[in-house]
TrEMBL record:
Source organism superkingdom: Archaea
Record keywords: Nitrogen fixation, Oxidoreductase
Phylogenetic classification of the source organism: Archaea, Methanobacteriati, Methanobacteriota, Methanomada group, Methanobacteria
Keyword Oxidoreductase on entry: yes
Enzyme class of the recorded protein, top EC level: oxidoreductase
Protein name, per record: Nitrogenase
EC number(s) reported in the record: 1.18.6.1
Amino acid sequence: MEPMHTCKLFGAIKTILGIKNAIPIVHGPVGCAYHMRYLLTLRGGSKVKICSTQLSQEDVVFGAEKKLKDTIVKVDKYYKPDLIAVLTSCSTSIIGEDVFRVVKEIKNEINAEIIAVSAGGFEARQNEGYEDTIMTLIKELVKPCKKSDKPLINFIGMYRGGPDLKHLKNELKKMGIGVNCVLTSGCNIREIRNLTKANLNYSFCDISAIKPSKFLKKKFGMEFIDYPFPIGFNNTYRFFNKILDFFDIDYPLEKEYAEFKEIKDKLIKNLKGCKVAIISGPTRAVALTDFIIELGMEPVLISIDLVGEKTLKHLNTVLSNTNFEPEILIEPDLIQIEKRLKDTDVDIILGGANELSFSFTYKIPVVDVMHGQAKTMGWDGAREIARTILKNIKT
Ligand code: SF4
């Protein structure tokens, strides 16, 4: 009744907004674009451009191809984007507006590259919005390139820039590994076209990056890695180690990892036995579970909003060497999570802004691991999450 996921259009918009100088045009009534913009700018105060064809009642009954064409031309002329993505919404998906034909017809009349994605909210949840849009970008834009003779990697399904991405890139640079394209967080259209220059793809999202990674392997022979996700000291070590192994690079990673032993021992001493609820997306939920076990804490409730084909397998691997038997909620709604939180003795929640209401109601501190400006990945992220837990934990 109270869903914890959103619609396909959200995923499509978020994917496009991660590309520099790209503009999504939502072919639908005004609310779809407005509410998405509101949601995506609420926390960071950032400015995003989401255009709309602003359909009327008559348009959603009889179709509005002309309005769409006029909007595309206007957006191309006014904003001069590198890429326009036409996205259907519920109303235009229901009437079957042929946006693919419109895009084909107008392609030569505009300067921007243009793609279309069927993104009606009722078609699927946000994960398919991410996945379909990435697949469309790959199919429409990526071309075969000469492989780089230096170690070069793509991050697939990473929608988070900020300090996390900067930190991972810096660490990889120290190892002599370049990041070719981050699909999609701060990449540009040229980087997408040249995606196949890289020697390796790393999937950052269980629910939207595995299919594109498999496609890139089949079509262009690009190898990919999909696990682990670099949250926590152990996971960060394994993440870099896998990449170093792939490129056969000799690097003192063990030494780097060993430098955190003292910090870790102190954290374990203070956090041992604390009970944790994790409320998150699949890839993060698995990595966070691993991390809190690493810190000596106990996962008592794990709520995962959507699951990918490998999520539960990875989660089982994490839990298999422990005596913990947390309650696992798969794709729950808000009422279920609230009920379980109320009945479970939890010292801290690892989640996002959505969980603040639980925090106020049940007086359980929340560590926000979803905010784009929070440090969560790599060595820096592990230190930061642990410090924040320590600062906030119920005593
Ligand atoms: S569910 Fe449909 S109407 Fe609602 S925002 Fe998504 S696309 Fe728009």
